[in-house]
Design brief:
Strand 4, helix 6 and strand 5 form a beta-alpha-beta unit. The protein is 40% helix and 14% strand. An 8-stranded parallel β-barrel has the order 1-2-3-4-5-6-7-8, surrounded by 5 helices. The protein folds into 2 domains: 226 residues, Phosphoenolpyruvate-binding domains (TIM Barrel); 28 residues. The longest helix is centred in the C-terminal third of the chain and has 17 residues. With 263 residues, the chain is α/β, with parallel strands linked by helices. The structure holds 3-methyl-2-oxobutanoic acid. 3-methyl-2-oxobutanoic acid binds next to strand 6.
């Protein structure tokens, strides 16, 4: 995946191959992850895995801009998505002002907005003012407090019909792709089949147009909890702890630094 993707090339993958999206929060990891990713998401999940908070709600726009800049520096060849944090897109005007800041102060390629039908007017306002938007429907982490927890969506007919309406409304408003999170796999597949833009799933089964994972979950670095949909491709926390233990032991035993590390 050497060529930087564009909105057009992302859309053209629909029906041809699944998109690979991964989060990153800094230049170091963005550079490591970039060679095998289509899209890098600077998710507000950084508030949990990077800043140690219990949810995403206290992430600020300044923080998102700081981390997006770092990711853009590390992954110069990647399509970068900046998550709009909670409370920064409650009205059309606020959404445009804040996402304009993201576009002016970083080289992010688009912003991501959580919400379906209820956010369609805002998405339309942004896209008609030159801000590319990735939607996000289903389980919305920014609604965790109002919903009283992380709830899988699409379990009954009412929720399923709402999800389909949400997907159609977000597409109609001009979003070029959409994340779908925490949704029963059969309904997520149905949604992917009833819109023309790519649907990128997280906890939404294999029948959608791509997958996204939080990098610190995927690398097994985040230890607080592991959602069912996470696959750990590395036992990162054990490897890091083992390396640190060895370093600590060698320092205490005066085995490090050796001759080769010494001027
Ligand atoms: O913030 C984030 O990392 C996200 C993903 C869970 C899609 O929005």
């Amino acid at each position: 995946m050497n060529n930087k993707m564009t909105i057009t090339s992302i859309q053209k993958t629909k029906g041809l191959r699944p998109l690979v999206m991964i989060t990153a929060y800094d230049a170091l990891f963005a550079k490591l992850l970039e060679p095998s990713a289509d899209i890098i998401l600077v998710g507000d999940s950084l508030n949990m895995s990077f800043a140690g908070k219990s949810d995403t709600l206290s992430a600020t726009l300044d923080q998102m801009i700081y981390h997006t800049n770092a990711v853009c520096m590390g992954a110069k060849n990647s399509f970068v998505v900046c998550d709009m944090p909670f409370g920064t897109y409650s009205t059309k005007e606020e959404a445009l002002k804040n996402s304009t800041r993201v576009f002016q102060e970083t080289s992010a390629d688009c912003v991501k907005i959580e919400g379906g039908e209820d956010k369609a007017d805002i998405i339309k306002y942004l896209t008609s003012n030159g801000i590319a938007v990735c939607g996000h429907i289903g389980l919305l982490p920014q609604s965790v407090r109002s919903e009283g927890g992380y709830k899988v969506k699409g379990k009954n007919e009412k929720e399923q019909l709402q999800l389909i309406d949400d997907a159609r409304a977000v597409e109609k408003a001009g979003a070029f792709c959409m994340v779908i999170e925490g949704v029963k796999a059969d309904i997520a597949t149905e949604i992917a089949n009833c819109v023309n833009i790519p649907i990128i799933g997280i906890g939404a089964g294999v029948g959608v147009d791509g997958q996204v994972l939080v990098f610190s979950d995927m690398l097994g670095l985040f230890e607080e909890f592991t959602p069912k949909f996470v696959k750990k491709y590395l036992n990162g926390s054990s490897l890091v702890k083992e390396a640190m233990k060895n370093y600590s032991k060698e320092v205490q035993n005066r085995e490090f630094p050796q001759e080769i590390h010494t001027y």
